[in-house]
Batch of 2 targets.
Target 1
Amino acid sequence: MKKRVLGLVALSMLAMAGTSTAQDDPIKARETLMEQIGDAMKVLGPTAQGKMGYDAAKVSAALTTISTNAADFPNHFPDGSIGNSDALPAIWENKADFETRSKKLSDDAKAAMASVDGGLDTFKPAFGAVAANCKSCHEKYRKPS
Ligand code: HEC
C-alpha cells in the first residue's frame, strides 16, 4: 500500500515537472504553437489548391487549431525571453501591434469556419484571408531564415 502511494506521488511529480517545463520555457511553448499552426496549414493549403480531397472535418479541425493557437501565441513573450529564438526585438517594442496581428489570425481562422460547409468554392477565399496573416507578421517580427 505504502509503495503504491509513493508510486502515485512520483507519478504526479513527473506530471508536474512536465507542465512546469512547458510553462517555464516560453520559447518552446510559442514555437510549438507555431509548429502546430504550420501543420494545420499543410492540410489547408493543399486542400485549397485542390491537391487534397476536401474533408470538411479535417478543415474544421485545422482552422480550430489555428484560431486557438494564434489567440494564445502572444501570451508567451515575457520580457527577456528572446534567447536564441527566431523572435525579433520588434515584438517587445510593438507589443500592441503584435497582439493585434495574433488576434487577427485567430479571428480570420474562426471566421473561415463558416465557409467550411460550402465546400471548396467558399473555403478557398476564406483560406486566402487566413494565409495572408503569416507572411506579413513574419516579415516584421521573425528572423529571416
Ligand atoms: C502575430 C505574428 C505571427 C503570425 C500572424 C504568424 N506567425 Fe509564425 N511565427 C511568428 C514568430 C514571432 C515566430 C518565431 C517564434 C520564436 O522563435 O520564438 C514564428 C514562427 C513560426 C514557425 C516556426 C516555429 C518553430 O518551430 O520555430 C512556423 C512553422 C510558423 N511561424 C508558421 C506560421 C504560419 C503558417 C502562419 C499563418 C497561418 C503564421 N506562422 C502566422 C509570428 C507570427
Target 2
Amino acid sequence: MIRICTSIWPCFIGIIALTTGALIGSETKPSKSPKKSIEQKTKIHRLDTQERAPYDAFTYLNRIPAKADEGEDILDFTARVYSRLANQEGRILIKLPQGMTREAYLGYKIFLSTDAKVSNGNCVTCHAPDKFTDFKLHKLNGDSPPRPTPSLRNLAERKIDIAEALQVKLAAIKSPNAPKAYRNIHLNKMDLTHLESFLKQLNDVDDKAFRELILNAKILNTLLD
Ligand code: HEC
C-alpha cells in the first residue's frame, strides 16, 4: 500500500510503525501451527538461533555469523567476524543489547583474538562459537590425561566462579608443558576484567527478556577508542 503523506505527523508515525512492524512483527497475528516458531515466540524476525544469551542478542543485532561454516577453519571464521566488526565500528554502528557494556565488547574481541602481541585471548581456538567448545580433548600439561573443552555457556547455572576459573587458566598457561594454544595467550589484568564481563554475557535469559535486550539496544560510541 503506497500512500502520499499530506501532513507530516501521520506520515512520520506511519513510517515508525512500518519499521517497528518489520522488526518485531504483528502482535495479533494468530499462530497457524500448534508449535510456535522462534520468530512467533520472540516476535523478532530473521532470528535463526535457539540460543538466548545477551551474546546471541549481540550477534543478531550486528549480523555477526553465529559459528564457522561447515569445513571453515576457525581462523577464517574469526577473520570474517573481525572484518564485520571493523566495518560496523568504522560507521559507528556497533549495537550493544541492554546490559552489554563496552568492557564486555572489548572482552569479546580479546576472546576472538588469535595472533596479537598483547590482549590476545586465543580462547576461540578451543572455545569455538556457537557452543563455545570445539568438542575436543586437550592435553593441558605433560602428565595429566587430556581434558574435554567445556562449553562456556551458562557458567552461572553451573555455579562457576569466572574470576577464579580465569586465574586457574592463567596458572595453566604458564606451565612449561602447556599446549601451543595456551602459550599464545597474552593477557594483562585489564584484559581479564574484560574477559570476565564478556563471559557473563553467555547466560541464557527467557524469551521475553531476550526480546527486551534487543529492543533496548544502544549504539556503542566507537570514537572513544
Ligand atoms: C587449548 C584449548 C583451550 C584454550 C586456548 C582455552 N581454553 Fe578454556 N578450557 C579448556 C579446557 C580443556 C578446559 C577444562 C579444563 C579442565 O578440565 O581442567 C577449559 C576450561 C575453561 C573454563 C572453566 C569452565 C568450566 O566449566 O569449568 C573457563 C572459564 C575457560 N576455560 C575460559 C577460557 C578463556 C577465557 C580462554 C582464553 C583466554 C580459554 N579458556 C582458552 C581449553 C582451552
